[in-house]
Each structure stands twice: as structure tokens, then as C-alpha cells.
Design brief:
This protein is of the alpha/beta class and 309 residues long. The protein folds into 2 domains: 67 residues, no CATH class; 231 residues, Rossmann fold (3-Layer(aba) Sandwich). It has 12 helices and 8 strands. The chain starts with a helix and ends with a helix.
Length: 309
């Protein structure tokens, strides 16, 4: 009996230890050794990555103001603010998982700034100068989108047009936020390579990059989030939230994305086809549609923004 209890206790400890390791590996921020200009190993060697690295360094060195606000759960959130022409709209940019504004928007952000837009480049919660430690893949971050819109309205006015941008996790976040009651001056949302269902994304990432069975990846992801992060990654999906949107949405996705598969954007589009415009870019990998098809990407983005001014 004693041996059986010891074995049971050891198994329980092992179970919770595995979940804790998973939590720290997937959800916890910040990670030591990371900087705003870092590039993960999986991105190194990709076409155009050196161009992106140079653009990232230039963006990081660009002069800006630092602004801050408070989240709904009292975290201090920080952002770079590039003040543009007073007559121009505001663009609020949300970066990806373990990313940064200066890296993930080194191209699009530079274009917007050069055109005179007022650009708020957000440090998402748990990243860089923003507070927090647990990444929730949009479940809590979506409310930060609304917080930053309200901050922009305090900086300017509630009748100045606002465009919301997101890439990767930031794209999923802003699309989840589309289901909230956004102010009327939010004109549109532009999302690059979003996932739809966090559970499915965990299963895809686990099976593709870690060779972990999909069911096991989903179990570990949800259990560790609930126990150590105090949130549920199955609380909602992007598709569920965009069904409620009153804001036009543009989604762009690289056809060769091996981190967030392209079919996820198609699922999102199918959830509300009347409000969502989708463009797929051949050969482009994760977050690199702009780099692979720069002129086409710019043209689509500019046209969509002008149509929804």
C-alpha cells in the first residue's frame, strides 16, 4: 500500500511538473536573452530575412514618444508613438507571439509612418515594457485592443479614424477584438496570418515542429493554461468573434506558412464572408507576405484603408 501511494504521489508530481514546464515554455514571458530585434532560429535562412533584420534595426533606432495606459486588469501597457500629420488617421499595431512592433512591423510600420499616419506601435502585455507574465493568445489581449483605442481617442478625439493592424498572434488578437463593442471611429481591421482556434494551432505546432500527437498537445496546452495561467484557451475562437463584427476586415496570409497554416484564415473568412476580404500570397511564409509581394501587399492595404476611411 505504501509503495502504491509513493508511486501515485510521484505520478501526480510528474504530471504537474510536465504542465509547469509546458506553461513556462509556451505561455510565460519574458524570456531571458530576448530583445525587441531578435529573430527566432526558425526564421533565420528564410528569403528576405536579412532585409527584415536591417529594417528592424532601423525601426528600433527611429525617434518616437513613449506612451502608456492601464489594461482592464490593471497592467501597465506601453507603446511607441510615432506622431504624424495632425490631419491623418491613427494606426494601432499589434505584434506577434514573442515578437515586437519594431520587428513585426518593420515594413508596414515604416510605410505608414512615412505616409504621415499617427502610429501607435504596441508592446503587447507580457512583452518588453508592458507588464504581465502570461501570454493568453488573445483571450485577455483582445480587451487591450479596446484599451488602446480608448487611449488613441484621448490623445486625439473620438471622431479621428482609427485603423487596427495585427500580425500572427496580434492578428488573431485584433480579430477577436472585432467581436467587442468598438468605438464608431474604428474604420477597419487589417490582419496578417492569424490563427483561428488556439487549440488547433497548438495541435498543429506540436505535431509539425515537436512531433507530438495533436490530442496530447491540446491537452497539455489547455490544462497548463488553466492551472498555471488561470485562463482557458478554448474560451473562444477568432471565427466565433468575427461573426459579431461591425467593422470591415482585411486578412492576408502566405500560402507556404508553416507556423500558422493558411487554411485557418479561410476558416475565419467563411465565418463572416460579407465583412471579410481575404488575400492569399503564393510562396510567402509566416509573416512574410509583405516581403515576398511588397507592391501587391501595399496596393491592397492602401486601397482597403481608403475604401474604409
Amino acid at each position: 500500500m505504501t509503495i502504491a501511494l509513493i508511486i501515485l504521489a510521484a505520478l501526480v508530481i510528474l504530471f504537474f511538473s510536465v504542465l509547469l514546464v509546458f506553461y513556462f515554455f509556451v505561455y510565460y514571458m519574458p524570456h531571458r536573452g530576448m530583445t525587441e530585434t531578435h529573430f527566432e532560429k526558425i526564421l533565420l535562412g528564410h528569403p528576405y530575412v536579412e532585409d527584415a533584420r536591417r529594417a528592424t534595426e532601423e525601426m528600433a533606432a527611429r525617434k518616437c514618444e513613449r506612451i502608456a495606459t492601464r489594461s482592464h486588469d490593471k497592467l501597465r501597457l506601453s507603446a511607441r508613438f510615432f506622431r504624424g500629420d495632425e490631419s491623418m488617421p491613427v494606426c494601432i499595431l499589434f505584434h506577434g507571439y514573442h515578437g515586437s512592433g519594431v520587428r513585426d512591423f518593420s515594413g508596414v510600420g515604416r510605410d505608414l509612418i512615412n505616409k504621415g499616419y499617427n502610429v501607435i506601435m504596441v508592446d503587447e502585455r507580457n512583452h518588453w515594457r508592458s507588464e504581465g507574465h502570461t501570454i493568453t493568445f488573445g483571450m485577455r489581449e483582445r480587451y487591450d485592443v479596446l484599451t488602446w483605442v480608448k487611449k488613441a481617442n484621448r490623445l486625439f478625439s473620438d471622431d479621428k479614424p482609427i485603423y487596427i493592424f495585427g500580425i500572427s498572434m496580434g492578428a488573431a488578437t485584433v480579430l477577436m477584438a472585432s467581436g467587442l463593442e468598438l468605438p464608431e471611429n474604428v474604420r477597419c481591421i487589417l490582419a496578417d496570418c492569424p490563427y483561428n482556434d488556439v487549440m488547433d494551432e497548438m495541435a498543429f505546432a506540436g505535431s509539425t515542429h515537436m512531433k507530438t500527437p495533436a490530442a496530447l498537445s491540446k491537452f497539455l496546452a489547455r490544462a497548463s493554461a488553466k492551472i498555471y495561467g488561470r485562463f482557458d484557451i478554448a474560451e473562444t475562437t477568432v471565427a466565433d468573434e468575427v461573426k459579431k463584427t461591425k467593422v470591415p476586415i482585411l486578412i492576408m496570409h502566405g500560402e507556404e506558412d508553416n507556423l500558422v497554416p493558411c487554411y485557418m484564415s479561410k476558416q475565419i473568412k467563411e465565418a463572416n464572408p460579407d465583412m471579410i476580404e481575404l488575400h492569399i500570397f503564393p510562396e510567402a511564409r509566416h509573416g512574410q507576405s509583405y516581403l515576398f509581394h511588397k507592391e501587391e501587399y501595399r496596393s491592397i492595404m492602401d486601397r482597403f484603408m481608403q475604401e474604409n476611411l
